[in-house]
């Protein structure tokens, strides 16, 4: 099955664009207050976002433009928690790996997915977890951004052996 998938005409860019489209659909469904469906679209879209890079490496179909497209679409999709992604991207542009912090992308996806699927009116019991999920995301975003700032400062200081 894996070899058939790799030999197919499926491209990493198609996976990236599908994930982006599903996340746009999730945003539209949220506006329409269809939280359960938004949660499903967000979960599937986010899974697609994690698979595109892996598929690119496994299939050998990756291109420099594909890497650019994937990372650009990821930033657009993460508008709600942009600073976490931005700090990582800027650190990596400086040559510092920056995957530290509590609110990694999988953590953010899980929190928002739970909030959407268990939002008031989503049809899964009498829960209202959307607002608490958004507040938790906001707090973790600030904390993770600070963690990454301090991490990058330490790393750059170690690299240059000078005050940063």
Helix-strand blueprint:
Layout: H1 2-7, H2 12-31, H3 35-59, H4 64-77, H5 82-93, H6 105-117, H7 130-160
Helix pairs in contact: 2-3, 2-4, 3-6, 5-7, 6-7
Q: Count of DSSP helices? A: 7
End-to-end Cα distance: 51 Å
Q: In CATH terms, what is the architecture of the largest domain?
A: Up-down Bundle
Main sheet makeup: none
- Beta-strand share of residues: under 5%
Low-confidence runs (pLDDT<50, min 5 residues)?
none
What does it look like?
With 164 residues, the chain is mostly helical. It folds into 2 domains: 77 residues, CDP-alcohol phosphotransferase transmembrane (TM) domain (Four Helix Bundle (Hemerythrin (Met), subunit A)); 85 residues, Four Helix Bundle (Hemerythrin (Met), subunit A) (Up-down Bundle). The chain has 7 helices and no strands. The mean pLDDT is 85.
List keywords for this structure.
mainly alpha, single chain, 0% strand, Four Helix Bundle (Hemerythrin (Met), subunit A), 164 residues, 7 helices
Q: What is the structure about, briefly put?
A:
This protein folds into 2 domains: about 1-75, Up-down Bundle (Four Helix Bundle (Hemerythrin (Met), subunit A)); about 80-164, Four Helix Bundle (Hemerythrin (Met), subunit A) (Up-down Bundle), CATH 1.20.120. Helices cover about 75% and strands about 0% of the residues. The protein has 7 helices and no strands.
